[in-house]
Amino acid sequence: MLEQCYVAENYYQEKQLSTTVTVDEEKEYFDEHQNEYKNVSFAYLQVPYASENESEVPSFSTESRESVIEKCNGYAEEIKSVDDVKKLIPTACSDLINSFVEQGYAEDAEACAEMLAANVEVSITASETGFIKEGIYWLFSDDVKVGECKAFDDSDNAIVYVIYKTSEPEADDTMVYSVRHILVTPESEEEASEEESKTEDTHNHEGTQNVEYTDEEWAAAENKAQKILDEYNNGDKTELAFAKLAEDNSDDTESTSKGSSGIYGGLCAGVKEGQMVPTFEEWSIDPERQYGDVGIVKSEYGYHIMYFVENVEKYLYDCKSAIQSQKEDEFIKS
């Protein structure tokens, strides 16, 4: 039974890998779902008022709804910057601050106000479900400009939001890269004697490498990596072929189906700069890199046989992932 599950999972992963998405498909999908992938930034205050139904919505204030709405409309007229929002926190959010202090979320009112101020500016997409809908519609409206401020009554939660818009909606154009890799870790007598499994997690570039390998052990690992790369180059040289080699040979099992991450074929996808070890990353973000490029780089974990997939804007990567999911669902249903 386990063998059947393993075969089925590998077949699914191979089918997923062969699901191609064109650049035109990504751009068309983005055009149709822009608000799901655009973020708008804003600063805000939460000012509670007395709940009319405390059995369903706990009260953080004894002040009436009408009084709080009037105050918040005044705050909205005063606010001209994010600093103005922060300065109002001790006064406007005093009831909320007192409640947080009583519940032990902060040592005192001053510390709580500083905590709120540090998190006063956020960003959301139009599909966000955990924020007041009227506020989201307002933030994404073409008629609302950066620097405008408005109060919104969330009667369901007995809170008035004072929202100050700090950016226009825009897609996340942070560059992210995707590669496949096969990790070949040097084999030491120390590890062999302790029967340790070679499952280094390359994703944590701050991890420590406790074993010190000899020059001979490093040379043997390099030779093994080169042989695997030669095997790839002597084959059909496809991404699927590389992924299968990763499944059979990589010591980074968390990037293969042997691990618990659900990843297949040595894939490291949607990676932002700073997440991987330097040599791995430098190879991956080389501007001359093209799809299908391969190579070998060395890190403290061993030798990485690299396969380049793409380096794109985050929003396009997210669109591609969504399209692939749709195609996979269609395949499963068929």
Give the assembly state of these chains. Answer: single chain
Overall SS class: alpha+beta
Instruction: Provide the helix percentage.
Output: 40-55%
Strand element count: 9
H and E order:
HHHEHHHHEHEEEEHHHEHEEH
The first-level CATH class of the largest domain is given as: Alpha Beta
Number of helices: 13
CATH arch. level architecture of the largest domain = Roll
Q: What are the segments in which pLDDT stays under 50 over at least 5 consecutive residues? A: 195-202, 204-208
| CATH topology descriptor of the largest domain | Chitinase A, domain 3
Please summarize the sheet with the most strands.
5 strands, antiparallel
Q: How would you describe this protein?
A:
- It is built from 13 helices and nine strands.
- By secondary structure, it is an alpha+beta fold.
- The chain has two domains: 37-171; 174-333, Chitinase A, domain 3 (Roll).
- Strands 1, 2, 3, 4 and 5 form a five-stranded antiparallel beta sheet that branches.
- A hairpin with a 2-residue loop joins strand 8 (294-299) and strand 9 (302-313).
- Helix 2 packs across helix 13 and helix 5 packs antiparallel against helix 7 (109-118).
